[in-house]
Amino acid sequence: METKVLKLDAAKVDAGKIKEAAHIIDAGGLVAFPTETVYGIACRVRADSLNKLNSLKNRNPEKYYTVHISRKNDVGTYVPRIGLRAQKLIKNAWPGPLTIVFEIDSQGITKQQGALEKEVFENLCRDNSIGIRCPDNQIAVKLLEITANAVVAPSANIAGRPPCVDAEDVLGQFSGQIEMVIDGGVCRYQKSSTVVKIGKAGLQILRQGVYSQRDIESMAMVKFLFVCTGNTCRSPMAEGIFKKNIAEKLECSVDRLGEKGYKVLSAGTMGMSGLPASAEAAAVCEARGIDIRGHKSSAVSRHLVEDSDMIFVMGQSHRQMVLSLCPQVSDRCLLLSEKDIPDPIGQSQEFYNNCAELIEKAVNKRISELVI
Questions:
Q1: pTM greater than the 0.85 cutoff
Q2: What pLDDT score does 201 carry?
Q3: SS3 of 218, please?
Q4: Of 176, 211, 260, 290, which residue is 20 to 30 A from 218 by alpha carbon distance?
């Protein structure tokens, strides 16, 4: 067969021309195309096409294939429940040079078995997991968008050889063996995507690539912020209680929350800094095995709010203050409880105890709603 070369400009993709490549893929053919990392070989998720791909690349058929999607929102087609850290990675790294392997629980597997076509499910969902890539290259995006079938796209290279980073490299290895090469120039990074697995065991780097482990850990860090007025009573108690209870859910110590990818802070709308938690707040936390004696108050700020993934406030007035600083966080700035939690400042220890009970009940409800 003669391999057709289709030259396209990634800055201005001709959708009409790229339809030809999509038709080839949907008919069972193989098309090499550029991504921001390396060139991939697009193949529909059908047994006959995948067998042809395995033979072409001299690839072990037992190896995982990664499905490629044109938009990050399409991840829901393949992963029914996405945890907080995976959501954060998707938000920060997609589209881009990151492949995410999602763990799927048994309930999710059953759901996907019914939702996906049989061949798609059997070839993508293995060992209760699925790998997904959302490339940041307009040629790749348009091709995946137009193709009617689910598409996998391993790197364009024979097993054991370096991945191809331009069309000339692809032709050097596969001329006459694939139907088409889309020539989109040299790949931006000329390096494979980083592959990360995320699930119960936390975050594991399966393959080093464009992003380092430090990059991934930073992009996957989930940050919670609790806000009250002075940051000496309610929000420090909420911070301490939340840390203890989410650590229990994660089966780790509070000191290891950062390693697990979670950061919990508190702040106040009054603008006071450096004050300790009230003696009554410290006492009520100590009774629960929580130490907030080292707490120092801090003022809520625009930067702190923007940097937080979930913001829990004690009352409507705090929410209004937060939104006045940063209106765009409306969807993630929530009342901790259904009703305002009363300010215990200047009240008795019993009042503090009751306040802490309200906070703990609300915290437990919020944690139960999180997909960890």
A1: yes
A2: 80
A3: helix
A4: 290
